[in-house]
Amino acid sequence: TDFKSDKQPTWCPGCGDFGTMNGMMKALAETGNSPDDTFVVAGIGCSGKIGTYMHAYALHGVHGRALPVGTGVKLANPDLEVMVAGGDGDGYSIGAGHFVHAVRRNVDMTYVVMDNRIYGLTKGQASPTSREDFETSTTPDGPQQPPVNPLALAFASGASFIAQSFSSDALRHQEIVQKAIEHDGFGFVNVFSPCVTFNDVDTYDYFRDSLVDLQDEGHDPTDRDAAKQKILEADKEYMGVLWQDETASSYEDTHDVDTNMSEIPDGAPEDGMDLVREFY
Ligand code: SF4
């Protein structure tokens, strides 16, 4: 697609992030976006490289802080399609506080978490979504604490859109990300994106065997009670849109966000620099 940059990804051959990114690029194109109206904000980790591999405006953010940056971008220029991406460590550990508040703020943007249930870039430590008994170099007996349920965390934080997909199921993954983009509010998609180098438990085969597509179950994502029940079933691996509140208003719909950067008065940046100098 137009969204593919000319940079060659350095992800390991077979990494789930390839499929995750391809689906995101296709979903952006399919929803009528172009690289010059799209801004990708990435966190830190293997997944964080995505902004380099996509052809769009992009910013490789600070660890765990991609969401506040994305929020700022969207509120500064609401015409942009803002896509924030990161990993499970980035989003649910160091970035967990930002996740909760971005969810409840409900700014109209999309957040894709490439969840491989391990820290890949730093060579295989347990992450917030790692299984309790997953043996790694830093947790030889496993983390010995239950994993974070990102869907439940989002639901409890007041999310208006919660979905889960699998990088290897190209068509469904693209469809699900598309729905998140089209949602008027904060579209959250947790994507199973296997790390073929450091996670030999949450593999492609595991997800292929265990994933249940909510579409096949006739799940109605606008039914709050049904959504809650699915989200709390931590022992099941669901794919699809779990919850969508079509009545929720995005932050932009209910607040004055007329903050286009072009309207910042002359001299403001210099005033800002004065403040910085004063502070230091
Ligand atoms: Fe992908 Fe894992 Fe390799 Fe990172 S270490 S690029 S997550 S396979």
Automatic annotation (TrEMBL):
InterPro entries in alphabetical order: 2-oxoacid:Fd_oxidoreductase, OFOB, PFO_beta_C, THDP-binding, TPP_enzyme_TPP-bd
Sequence ranges assigned to domain Thiamine pyrophosphate enzyme TPP-binding in this UniProt record: 45-191
Pfam family membership, one: TPP_enzyme_C
Cofactor: [4Fe-4S] cluster; Mg(2+); thiamine diphosphate
Region: Disordered, residue numbers: 123-146
Keywords: Iron, Iron-sulfur, Magnesium, Metal-binding, Oxidoreductase, Thiamine pyrophosphate
One GO BP: cellular respiration
SUPFAM superfamilies linked to this entry: Thiamin diphosphate-binding fold (THDP-binding)
Molecular-function annotations in GO: iron-sulfur cluster binding; metal ion binding; oxidoreductase activity, acting on the aldehyde or oxo group of donors, iron-sulfur protein as acceptor
Keyword Transferase among UniProt keywords: no
Domain Pyruvate ferredoxin oxidoreductase beta subunit C-terminal: 195-256
PANTHER family, alphabetized: 2-OXOGLUTARATE OXIDOREDUCTASE SUBUNIT KORB, 2-OXOGLUTARATE OXIDOREDUCTASE SUBUNIT KORB-RELATED
NCBIfam families registered for this protein in UniProt: PorB_KorB
Record's protein name: 2-oxoacid:ferredoxin oxidoreductase subunit beta
